[in-house]
Specification:
Layout (H helix, E strand, L loop, with lengths): L1 H46 L2 H5 L22
């Protein structure tokens, strides 16, 4: 039984090592992606100002009141 437990322990240690390597690889990739996206976001932020963004969207006047439709027919 001792030989079987040793064999199982060696196999388990090998599998745990493989799992740890895979987790480290994923972690490194996530760190790289996070750093790259941060640089991209900073570049976009530097290139596009708020005034430029408002050219693409209809920004309402702060003093404008929203139009509220009048009810049609009897109100129940």
């Amino acid at each position: 039984m001792g030989k079987a437990l040793t064999s199982a322990s060696v196999a388990w240690a090998k599998q745990v090592g493989t799992l740890l390597d895979a987790c480290a690889h994923i972690s490194n990739h996530l760190d790289y992606t996070k750093a790259t996206k941060k640089k991209d976001d900073e570049w976009v932020g530097a290139q596009v100002s708020v005034s430029k963004i408002s050219d693409y969207y209809d920004v309402p006047n702060e003093n404008a009141r929203p139009a509220v439709p009048k009810p049609q027919g009897p109100i129940m």
